[in-house]
Design goal:
Blueprint: H1 3-46, H2 49-87, H3 102-115, H4 123-137, H5 141-151, H6 159-181, H7 183-189, H8 193-209
Helix pairs in contact: 1-6, 1-7, 3-4, 3-5, 4-5
């Protein structure tokens, strides 16, 4: 493998690993923040029974409307499927085979030679085999490269691989930026109790207005 390409791809893989870890961490934080935020909303509403009554009715109406709309959409889909089923002849079965990138397939075989449980009794290597299998089934070239890096298996990346990994990194960064812009994320990280209460009141007002 070209030395410069090797260094470039390893740099991208390290960045991807960091961004994936950052996304996982912040995604878990915002889920926790969501629960705490809703609890704080309920605690504030409990202190104002009249407001709680109005808020609960509004939310229940929203839920009923969403349920009704989704039920109607589901009925329409079922009707469409039934019509399609009746119109189409069932004379032949078409099996769509998942297309696996040739590089992923080749590298997966190399990985399996030194990590497959039938070949070696080593928990760490066997775990890598499981991860590699997941990457293989998802046709994930970036994940496959990461296993190769751990096992010192050589591979030949090309410009399209770099673009793919860079795109994955940018996509995760966008999702992280979105998480950090959410109300619950900002509320969770605020150290000003008055500001946090104002955000809760703003949320309640927004729910009542919409």
């Amino acid at each position: 493998m070209n030395k410069l390409k090797q260094l470039e791809i390893k740099k991208l893989m390290k960045e991807l690993d960091f961004v994936e870890s950052d996304f996982t961490y912040k995604n878990e934080i915002v889920h926790e923040a969501d629960s705490n935020f809703i609890k704080s909303v309920n605690d504030l509403l409990e202190q104002h029974p009249l407001l709680k009554d109005v808020f609960d009715k509004k939310i229940n109406n929203k839920i009923d409307n969403i349920f009704q709309r989704r039920t109607e959409e589901l009925k329409d889909k079922i009707e469409t499927i039934n019509e399609s089923y009746q119109e189409d002849s069932i004379e032949e079965e078409v099996i769509v085979e998942k297309i696996i990138d040739k590089k992923v397939r080749k590298l997966y075989r190399e990985i399996a030679k030194i990590t497959h449980p039938d070949r070696i009794d080593n928990r760490k290597l066997n775990d890598l085999y499981i991860k590699a299998t997941i990457y293989y089934n998802n046709n994930d070239i970036a994940g496959t490269y990461s296993i190769c890096n751990e096992l010192d298996i050589e591979y030949e990346p090309d410009d399209s691989d770099n673009q793919l990994i860079s795109g994955k990194i940018n996509g995760l960064k966008s999702r992280i930026s979105f998480i950090e812009s959410t109300l619950t994320w900002v509320w969770y990280h605020s150290t000003d109790d008055k500001e946090k209460e104002q955000m809760i009141l703003g949320y309640i007002k927004n729910q009542l207005d919409n």
